[in-house]
Amino acid sequence: MAQVRQIVLEGDPVLRRQAAEVRRFNPVLHKLLDDMKYTMYDAGGVGLAAPQVGISKRAIVVDDRENGFLELVNPLVTFRQGEEEDVEYCLSVPRCGGLVKRAAKIGLTYQDRFGEKHDLEAEDFFARVLQHEIDHLFGRLFVDIMTEEVKDEA
Ligand code: CO
C-alpha cells in the first residue's frame, strides 16, 4: 500500500544535497516511487523529487496534467533549446511563487523502475516541470534562480 510521506520544507539540508544515483531497482525503490506518486497527488502537485520526501536519491515523479503520470530514475538532460519565463511553485517552498527562466525544450534520458533506459523530449510546461524536479536532485530550488517573487493571489 502506498503511503503519503511527509514533504520536507525549505531549510531542511536534504533539499540542498546532491542526490545519489539509483543503482538498485528493487522493492525499496518501487515503494519509494509509489509513495512519491501518492504524496504528489495528495498535495495537488505536478511533480515531486525524492529529496522532497527526505530521500537523497535521483528519482522524480511528474504529472503535468497533459502527458500523464511518469516516474524517472536517474534522469539526465541531454539537450536544451530556447528559453521561456513563467511562474513556478514548489511543495517545499509554500511561502511564494517565482518567475523562472527555463529551456523551452529539453531532451532527457532516464531509467524506469526496472532499470530500462528511455529517451524523452519535452516542451513548454512539461519541460518546465521536469527541469524543476531535476534541479531538486542537484540541491537547487526555484527561489535560487527566480528573477522575481510572485505573491499568491488570495
Ligand atoms: Co519543487
Mean pLDDT: 97
Shape: globular
Number of strands: 8
| Class based on secondary structure composition and strand pairing | alpha+beta
**Beta-strand percent range:** 25-35%
Number of helices: 3
Largest sheet, in brief, is: 5 strands, antiparallel
Across the major sheet, the strand order is 1-2-3-6-7
Textual characterization of the structure:
This protein has 154 residues and is an alpha+beta fold. It has one domain: Peptide deformylase (Peptide Deformylase), CATH 3.90.45. The protein has three helices and eight strands, in the order αβββββββααβ. The protein has a five-stranded antiparallel β-sheet with strand order 1-2-3-6-7. The chain has a three-stranded antiparallel β-sheet with strand order 4-5-8. A hairpin with an 8-residue loop joins strand 4 and strand 5. It is globular and about 40 Å long. It binds cobalt (II) ion. Cobalt (II) ion binds next to helix 2. Cobalt (II) ion (CO) binds next to helix 2.
Secondary-structure map with pairings?
Layout: H1 27-43, E1 47-49, E2 59-63, E3 69-81, E4 84-88, E5 97-102, E6 105-111, E7 117-123, H2 124-137, H3 142-145, E8 148-150
Antiparallel strand pairs: 1-2, 2-3, 3-6, 4-5, 5-8, 6-7
Bound molecules: cobalt (II) ion.
The site of cobalt (II) ion has 5 residues, from helix 2.
